[in-house]
Amino acid sequence: MFLVLSGLSFAAFAWSVVYGSFTGLSFFGDKGDLALLVLTTLFFIVAILKAEASRAPRETNSQTR
């Protein structure tokens, strides 16, 4: 779920950058783009940490056998 949220927020950020480069107008503004990029990064970090946490017990059990 967090990986999907990360992808969607990155797509919104990329759309904002492309829109701004073609029109000369910023849709979210500089601070809004920064906040969106930070939110994208946080969603991605949470997704990776959750994936590692769910994978870690299986690796630990297989190594102890």
Q: Which descriptors would you attach to this protein?
A:
about 60 residues; mainly alpha
Summarize the structure.
This protein has 65 residues and is an all-alpha fold. It has helices at 2-23, 29-64.
Describe what this molecule looks like in 3D.
This protein has 2 helices and no strands. With 65 residues, the protein is mainly α. The chain has one domain. The protein is rod-shaped. The two termini are 32 Å apart.
- Quaternary status: single chain
Question: Can you tell me the number of structural domains?
Answer: 1
| Helical residues, percent | over 70%
Rounded to the nearest angstrom, the radius of gyration is 17 Å
Number of strands: 0
Look at the structure and give the mean pLDDT: 88
Strand content: under 5%
The total count of helices amounts to: 2
Transmembrane segments: 36-53
Keywords: Membrane, Transmembrane, Transmembrane helix
Write the layout of secondary structure elements.
Elements lengths: L1 H22 L5 H36 L1
Helix pairs in contact: 1-2
